[in-house]
Design a protein that fits this description.
Elements lengths: L7 E2 L8 E2 L6 E6 L2 E6 L1 E8 L2 E6 L9 E6 L10 E2 L3 E4 L2 E5 L1 E2 L5 E2 L2 E7 L4
Antiparallel strand pairs: 1-2, 3-4, 3-13, 5-6, 6-10, 7-13, 8-11, 9-10, 11-12
Length: 120
């Protein structure tokens, strides 16, 4: 296997380049506990309703990386859910708590988690 070392990257057809450090280190798209698509995710652990741990294929260099998650929600019976941004970060994984309904109860839904930071 070869290693290509670059400072900036530009996809075919793009007009602007971007710093390699701005590319996501990991991301995962989930649908009710199943991985739909991912980068640098070895597996997920279902810790319970709306509570998932994404396990990285390649670890992060430290546990202070940035993350964002988005969980899609619908109006159900006139009440909206809201997104929880709680997470437990480790170098080898991130545990996210997904969508909560208006009473604060976690529920499974479609969503994604994106990780930015340095790989180990």
């Amino acid at each position: 296997m070869s290693t290509l070392t670059v400072t900036n990257i530009k996809a075919t057809g793009e007009t602007a380049s971007r710093a390699v450090s701005g590319v996501a280190a990991a991301w995962v798209g989930l649908y009710q506990g199943s991985i739909q698509d991912s980068t640098n995710i070895a597996s997920i652990t279902d810790n319970g309703t709306g509570d998932y741990t994404s396990n990285f294929t390649n670890a992060m260099s430290n546990a202070t990386y940035a993350f964002s998650n988005c969980f899609f929600f619908e109006e159900t019976g006139g009440s909206y859910g809201y997104i929880s941004q709680n997470a437990v970060r480790a170098t080898g994984s991130i545990r996210n708590y997904g969508r909560r309904n208006t009473s604060g109860t976690l529920s499974d839904s479609e969503g994604c988690v994106t990780i930015h930071g340095d790989l180990a």
